[in-house]
Amino acid sequence: MLSKFYLYNTLSKKIEEFIPHTPGKVSMYTCGPTVYHYAHIGNLRSYIMEDILEKALRYNGYDVKRVMNITDVGHLSSDADTGEDKMLKGAKREHKTVMEIAKFYTDAFFNDCQKLNIKRPDIVEPATNCIQDFIHIVSSLIEKGYAYVAGDNVYFDTSKLDDYYALTGHNSKDLMVGVRDDVEEDPNKRNKADFVLWFTKSKFEDQELKWDSPWGVGYPGWHIECSGISLKYLGEYLDLHCGGVDNIFPHHTNEIAQSEAYLGHQWCKYWFHVHHLNDKSGKMSKSKGDFLTISLLESKGYDPLVYRMFCLQSHYRKPLEFSYEALDNTSSAYSRLKKRIATLQQEGEIDKNSAETYRVRFAQTLGNDLNSSMALTAVYDILKAPLNDATKLWLIEDFDTVLSLNLVSKSKENTTVDAQLEELINAKIHERTLAKQRKDYATADAIREELLAKGIVLKDSREGTTWSKI
Ligand code: AMP
Ligand code: ZN
Questions:
Q1: What are the residues facing 162 on neighbouring strands?
Q2: Mutation test of ligand 1: which of 36, 40, 46, 317 has the most ligand atoms closer than 8 Å to its C-beta?
Q3: Ligand 1 pocket test: which of 37, 43, 308 has the largest number of ligand atoms within 8 Å of its C-beta?
Q4: Are 384 and 368 in contact (CB under 8 A)?
Q5: pLDDT tier at 172 (50, 70, 90 boundaries)?
Q6: What's the pTM?
């Protein structure tokens, strides 16, 4: 079944039928994490929605090849080529080498992905593995007159393009990072929007990772990484490029500039951007210091898949506000859904003919600009449908290849404990409540940890403390 798939394209600013360069095959590129810290749940919203997109395309019959980079060099604190390399900042913070930091946080990222049932892309490539590929592209851009050397750095000359701002849809100078008041101007740039392809004259003497290049010892800019890795593994015609909305400018705008200047033709046809997860104080960001991670949610007793479901409940093109109240609602909804699924018996013959009608509808829902909340509703529709239990279970498993909420396997999990353990839990909760009343938080935390070691998670709310089995 190869169904029509419609997606909002940031480039054309409308919902379009998705038609890949080679019929039935999709080349998909995702900007990967900058591995100087844990991913926060905002980053993970983007990766959950990109995961659903990949799985939705596969469900609709497309053969997807997906590539993701790991940014382990070149991403400076400001996207406008100023500030310190984020990796170096992370290494200093933890008194480790950049490579140690990169390995630690790359593993942590994929660990989070696993907990969230985010499939690992077919190819995952750290930027530091592809330095020669970047040097090749930069050399070619200089030869073609799109790049220049100034002050020992190599810059892309944005004035050489007719429509540098095609992706943002603005021609406004206000969008240019270089003209913002808070950004230090680089006197080497011929135009304010020009960006660095290769740094040799690093402002940071202690920049740890440096490579030989025709322009001296240095390191690549952040934007060239994604162009280089995408071109290397997915070729000259990219079907789909993904990222969070903050990547539209300057990162993706610069990727388009350099890739198309290098190739001499259009590079990527469809651009998919996920809107931000915000907290009450605004956009969640790693540099804010105190940020929410999946491990933190777990330590508070949430199944990571509750967060996945929370993301699926809203459309990827709408900002999403995080709150524990909202997450609690999703948590209850997830439990209720699992309980309903648990009542289904493996009885009767699977009615493949009827199931196909529901499958087609589910595929269309996904192909309707990735309507993930309606796709979730489709599970509730199955529970109410005039189908036998075996067919319902079969369809829920089938939908879950996309939703990835472990709906059937988790519904079979035993959530009860024996009477002795239950008695102990209740006694400990009481002891902990008393400890909190006398502001003895060390004891309260120790009790939480003690129960956690027994596989019991405590959750505090205004109504009191409840517990659940991990
Ligand atoms: P980074 O690790 O900072 O390079 O970001 C990884 C991905 O997370 C990128 O695609 C960003 O666009 C995306 N991202 C960053 N902040 C948020 C947020 N608050 N909500 C959703 N996605 C985000
Ligand atoms: Zn990127």
A1: none
A2: 46
A3: 43
A4: no
A5: very low
A6: 0.89
Q: Rounded to the nearest whole angstrom, what is the distance from the C-alpha of residue 30 to the centroid of ligand 2?
A: 7
Q: Is the CB of 32 inside a 6 Å radius of any atom of ligand 1?
A: no
Across 33-42, average pLDDT: 94
Q: Which atom of ligand 1 is nearest to the CA of 242?
A: 10
Coil vs helix vs strand at 70: strand
pLDDT of residue 88: 84
The CA-atom distances, in angstroms, between 6 and each of 13, 20, 272 are 13, 12, 12
Q: Which residues of 230-241 are buried (b: 16+ CB within 10 A; e: fewer)?
A: bbbbbeeebbbb
**34 CB within 6 A, ligand 1:** yes
Neighbours of 463 (CB within 10 A): 6
Beta bridge partners of 457: 468
Could you tell me the CA-to-CA distances from 225 to 129, 148, 177, 209, 252 in Å, in that order?
10, 18, 20, 15, 11
Q: For ligand 2, a single-atom ion, which residues have Cβ within 5 Å? A: 31, 226
> Which pLDDT tens digit goes with each residue over 374-430?
999 999 999 999 999 999 999 999 999 999 999 999 998 877 778 888 889 999 999
Higher pLDDT, 457 or 336: 336
H helix intervals, 60-130: 86-94, 98-115
Task: Name the residue at shortest CA distance from atom 23 of ligand 1.
Answer: 43
CA-nearest residue for atom 7, ligand 1, is: 43
Q: How far is the CA of 187 from the centre of ligand 2 (A)?
A: 26
Please measure the distance between the N-terminal and C-terminal CA atoms of the chain and give it in whole angstroms: 38
Q: Of the bound ligands, which one is closest to the alpha carbon of residue 222?
A: 2
CA 251 / ligand 2 centre spacing (Å): 6
Cβ distance 458 to 429 under 8 Å? yes
Name the token pair of 164: 């540098």
Please state, in angstroms and as integers, the Cα–Cα distance from residue 142 to each residue in 63, 166, 203, 351, following that order: 36, 22, 23, 62
Which residue matches tokens 């009191």?
A: 464
44-87 confidence digits (pLDDT tens): 999 999 999 999 999 999 999 999 999 988 777 776 777 778 88
